[in-house]
Specification:
Oligomer: single chain
Strand order of the largest sheet: 1-2
Strand content: under 5%
Distance between the termini: 113 Å
Structural class: mainly alpha
Helix content: 55-70%
Shape: elongated
Order of helices and strands: HEEHHH
């Protein structure tokens, strides 16, 4: 009877010990999960904050560019008079400076685009070269050689 009672006590102790170990493991696992969740939350918050800063910087730059473009459109090249009643430029200002109408500037730039430049193609702007190319005209007088051809020429030159 005493042996059986000792055995039962021993079994109870082992069961209690296992249960205690199990509780410790569960607590450790819960703490690990909690730390992992907190880390993930911090990372997500940091990423969100960085994205917010990025888009804020983009928006600030977009506004700056918009304001600059608006300022360029609204500011004439030289100080000038403008009659808001008729919507026309007055032409001459009291200081003797003449108002340059931006519409005139635009038509002049269109005329330049439509004229055929007589300069060498290399001195043309990209837009002009692109326009000439689309019209099927020669945009460069440089001869382009393939890399392989250049290598062969170099080999021949070094062997001589």
């Amino acid at each position: 009877l005493q042996d059986e009672e000792r055995r039962r006590k021993q079994q109870l102790e082992e069961i209690r010990k296992r249960e205690a170990e199990e509780r410790v493991k569960q607590q450790q696992e819960e703490e690990r999960r909690w730390r992992e969740e907190e880390r993930a939350k911090r990372e997500a918050e940091e990423k969100r904050r960085q994205e917010e800063e990025y888009y804020t910087r983009l928006e600030v730059e977009r506004r700056r560019q918009h304001e600059e473009a608006e300022r360029k459109l609204l500011t004439p090249d030289e100080p000038a008079g403008f009659n808001s009643y008729t919507g026309n430029s007055t032409g001459v200002v009291g200081s003797g400076e003449v108002y340059k109408d931006l519409r005139d500037k635009w038509t002049r730039s269109q005329e330049q685009e439509n004229s055929i430049p007589s300069d060498a193609p290399e001195s043309l702007t990209f837009k002009e070269r692109q326009r000439l190319f689309s019209q099927g005209k020669e945009v460069s007088n440089k001869v382009k050689a393939s890399r392989k051809l250049m290598e062969l020429e170099n080999e021949l030159n070094t062997k001589q």
